[in-house]
Amino acid sequence: MNGIEEEQTAFEIGVVVPKRNLKDENEGCDCVEVLVDEFRKVGLIVERVQGIADEFIKLAAPLETLGRAAAELHLKKRTHIGMDLQFEWEEVEAFVRQPDGSLFSWCERFHCYHHLIYGIVNKSQSAVTLKFDGEEFHWEVGECLVRKLESEHFVRQVFPLHDEVQRKKLLKSWALNWWDLTNQPIDEIYSYFGTKIAIYFAFLGMYTRWMFFPAAFAITLQLIDFGSLQLLVLPLFFIGVILWAVMFSQFWKRKNSALLARWQISYSAGVDLGHKLLGMEWSSLQSPVELLRKWGTDKTNEKEAYQRNEWFGCLMRFRNDAMVILSIICLQLPFELAYAHLYEVIRSDVMKFALTAIYLFVIQYFTRVGGKLSVKLIKYENNETTEKRADSLVYKVFGLYFMQSYIGIFYHALLHRNILTLRQVLIQRLLVYQVVENLLENSLPYLKYSYKKYRVRNKKKREKGSSTGKIQFTSRVEKEYLKPSYSASIGEELEDGLFDDFLELALQFGMIMMFACAFPLAFAFSAVNNITEIRTDALKLLTMFKRPIPRAATNIGAWLNIFQFLIVMSICTNCAILVCLYDQEGNWSIEPGLAAILVMEHLLLLIKFGFSRFVPEEPAWVRASRAKNATQAQDMCSKQLLRTISGVNKVFGKAKEKE
Q1: Which of 246-260, 407-421, 477-491 has the lowest mean pLDDT?
Q2: Which of 107-121, 238-252, 282-296, 373-387 has the lowest average pLDDT?
Q3: Given this model, what pLDDT does residue 42 score?
Q4: Is the pLDDT of residue 210 over 70?
Q5: At 16, phi and psi to the nearest 5?
Q6: Average per-residue pLDDT for the chain
Q7: At 278, is the secondary structure helix, strand, or coil?
Q8: d(CA 583, CA 263)
Q9: What is the pLDDT at residue 276?
Q10: Which of 101-115, 207-221, 591-605 has the lowest mean pLDDT?
Q11: What is the C-alpha separation between 607 and 633, in angstroms, rounded?
Q12: Can you tell me the distance from the alpha carbon of 334 to that of 320, in angstroms, rounded to the nearest whole number?
């Protein structure tokens, strides 16, 4: 296009196929040759790389090829007047570019690649016979080539490739840049990984930065001996922590809306985009077209169809939630109480520490099993969008982890009312859980990668019949293929690896908030842990995993509601802990101090909900920009409509004059 600078083309997609063993194949019918030829026909740039065990096809797309694909997909993009309109390659100058200067975001580019790769179908008049190493495949008329080869286990994987130049830049400016503490290049992260991962790191950075305030307060409480005033200082610390949490949640909403405005993303953006790329739409979800086919096109039947579908979905969600709650009460609650009781009975600190380690290991396994069962239950819920299905999964799995993480602590805090034991449990939980979790999440990907390389080397040595000599992996694309995918521990049907990262943050937030009065120093420990978490998560994404499939998002989803729930819970639990501290004999007499705690609880709840209404969720400049864009769009549409009406009237006027 004239006036359009061609963006630098980089290989962004890898396709894995087996290496050819026989040399006398007819290249005209060879699977790999046909696949490569079809990729070139749709405008993709192809490079073939021979690996140790497989062959890799690297794909890149010129800007015009991506633009044509975006137009075919009817992708909506932000224009210079603020409206989101369907993309047209011929009108490319009308559309706003990304923060890094590119025309399409990584999520949009991946969507276009998916359309180009999986849009290759047999348009001939008859089936095509494909051959490879003595095997034959029949590519039927109208059949998708890549889907066909995937079903025959010929195409082993299609995955995004790391851009080595951008990856090294992010390693230097982000993952290995420890001096900036919580500062991160969020725009560069968005350009490279997509919206969902960028929002996670923006949230983690802001959460860690805000945690410095209660951490400093907690260190002050630890260093200074207030003596008899200690019981007065703790309520002040508790009030400060609650106000901090409420302000953080509100100001995060403001930051989130500012990020979306900066990235030119509307709240109505298709959040299902990243999931649809994976082909993971549940068959149980009925579309409006299917409903109308089933119930007819009559207006009354149409209304009844939607109502039945809505209430059926509500009943299915209620049934699944009831099943999860009953399983927690019947199976998990006795196990948690047994652990808490044994911890109270055992006298040896070493035995207590060992019991906690064993408990955390066992309960993690059972909770993951419960999470996978929740994934299966979600399939039968009639949720409207993939985002709602993902949120439903988050609520169910967090309920399991909530019970696993906190019921034993509630046992020590409220039943035995042993504050010293409670502090000991919190220290052990924070140390053991956070340290072990960080070790596992950073070492397991490397161990999986090393094991896959070992298997490939071993298989190659057996084929050669020699056990001597080291086999080197020379191609970068093969190394990336052997790396594990960034997926959730409960499965990748609805969530990627961010599920585990957000779950870890939510459990930490609940631990430090709900028992703030018992162990204030937990805020300082968590702040240090989160600074490390930012860099280790960045290293994990850039070096240990394949490049994640981009998923669209406009916020952190159900996790924000979970954080809000934990704030309310923390008001109740900390008031109960303060009551235990004031009323150590257990008389439960309403003295002035205890009455003050009860009044404080109600005031904090009122402040929490009042402050949520007082602070706007959007900055003023975001609202003003949206109003300006809407006004410009309305003016332009009005002028265009008036021109159209004037043109029609002139045509009719001339026709009447001729008559």
Answers
A1: 407-421
A2: 282-296
A3: 92
A4: yes
A5: -105, 125
A6: 79
A7: coil
A8: 54
A9: 44
A10: 591-605
A11: 40
A12: 21
Task: Report the alpha-carbon distance of residue 64 to residue 59 in Å, rounded.
Answer: 15
- Contact at 8 Å (CB) between 254 and 615? yes
Residue 271 pLDDT exceeds 50: no
Beta 128-132 vs 84-86: how paired, if at all?
unpaired
Those residues with Cβ within 8 angstroms of residue 553's Cβ, 6 or more apart along the chain or in another chain: 195, 196, 199, 271, 274, 387
Contact, 226 vs 576, CB < 8 A? Answer: no
Say whether 13 sits in a helix, a strand or coil: strand
Residues 30, 66 contacting (CB under 8 angstroms): no
Using CA atoms, how far apart are residues 299 and 285, in angstroms rounded to an integer?
Answer: 22
Integer angstrom CA distances of residue 21 from 29, 54, 227, 546: 16, 11, 80, 28
Query: CB neighbours (10 Å) of residue 568?
Result: 14
Give the number of C-alpha atoms closer than 13 A to the C-alpha of residue 581, restricted to the C-beta side: 24
- What's the token pair of residue 517? 């009065």
From 71, 105, 69, select the one nearest 88 (Cα to Cα): 71
Structure tokens belonging to residue 221:
């409480």
Pairwise CA distance, residues 207 & 213, whole Å: 11
Q: How far is CA 76 from CA 96, 118, 187, 199, 277, in A?
A: 11, 21, 21, 21, 16
**Could you give the CA distance from residue 335 to residue 177 in angstroms, rounded to a whole number?**
43
Report the SS3 class of residue 264.
coil
| Pairwise CA distance, residues 263 & 305, whole Å | 39
Q: Write down the pLDDT at residue 2.
A: 42
Quote the strand ranges of 320-417, DSSP E.
Answer: none
pLDDT at 432 over 60: yes
**Quick check: 265 and 631 in contact, CB under 8 A?**
no
Which of 403, 276, 264 minimizes the C-alpha distance to 340? 403
pLDDT tens per residue, range 341-365: 777 777 777 787 777 777 767 776 7
Q: How far apart are CA 319 and CA 369, in angstroms?
A: 19
C-alpha 623/C-alpha 612 separation (Å) is 18
Structure tokens at 219: 């260190």
Based on DSSP, count helices (H) and strands (E) in the chain, helices before strands: 21, 8
d(CA 164, CA 172): 12
Dihedral, CA atoms, 364, 370, 376, 377, nearest 10 degrees? -140
Estimate the crossing angle of helix 349-378 against helix 386-410, to 10 degrees: 160
From 205-209, 252-256, 599-603, the region with the lowest mean pLDDT: 599-603
Round to whole Å and give the CA distance between 499 and 503: 6
Read off the tokens for 605.
């709840």
Looking at residue 270, what DSSP letter applies? Answer: -
129-175: per-residue pLDDT in tens?
888 877 888 888 888 999 999 988 889 999 999 999 999 999 999 99
Q: Is the distance from CB of 29 to CB of 131 less than 8 angstroms?
A: yes
Residue whose entry in the numeric block shows the structure tokens 């007082």 = 614
**DSSP annotation of 78:** E
Range list of H helices, 119-267: 145-151, 164-170, 186-193, 195-223, 230-262
